[in-house]
TrEMBL record:
Classification via PROSITE patterns: PDZ
Pfam families xrefs: GIPC1_GH1
Compositionally biased spans, kind Gly residues: 167-181
Originating organism: Anthoscopus minutus
Family assignment from sequence similarity: Belongs to the GIPC family.
Protein known as: GIPC1 protein
Location of the region described as Disordered in the Swiss-Prot/TrEMBL record: 151-195
Domain PDZ, first and last residues per copy: 76-156
InterPro entries hit by this protein: GIPC1-3_GH1, GIPC1/2/3, PDZ, PDZ_sf
Lineage: Eukaryota, Metazoa, Chordata, Craniata, Vertebrata
Domain of life from the UniProt record: Eukaryota
Coiled-coil ranges per UniProt: none
SMART domains tied to this protein: PDZ
Amino acid sequence: LVFHTQLAHGSPTGRVEGFSNVRELYGKIGEAFGIPPAEVLFCTLNTPQVDMEKLLGGQIGLEDFIFAHTRGRRKDVRLLKSEQALGLTITDNGAGYAFIKRIRAGSLVARVPQVGVGDVLEALDGRSLVGARHFEVARLLQELPRGQSFTLRLTEPRRAPEASGPRSGGARGEPPQGGRGTLRLRSRGPATLQE
């Protein structure tokens, strides 16, 4: 199975194949664009925008176009936990990075303009969060006492230009597989194709 891919901030179209999980996919994207796989923060399907509704999870449609979001600017943000809940929904990419999937409107974090959807949570008060699953990061943030200040080291994804769909540098063309289907990625075992 061959899938078309681009870097979300702009690149020629590449092709990836021969992967059965997210880590292998990031490795193939790295090979296609000559970047270390660790530069890939997450992928969206069929849009270069940071759109968590289009986040690549455990499956890819055979006609889906993969956009890889890579490391952008790193930032340290100091926050005061003035409320019990920060207002974050956290997910992870299955390859070592937890990131912000949603920010609840009106929440403590929503009032901090430096924090955005798609930001990777790299460290909490100097403690590395790289390699932690989303539920571990959420637990650490929940366990912070109310009234305590803390620092988050975040890395935002490089932003895509205002555009929709694949950009120049290669045509999507007809899907090489023919027909519709879904590739289901597994953390253990081989990927499976489902019509």
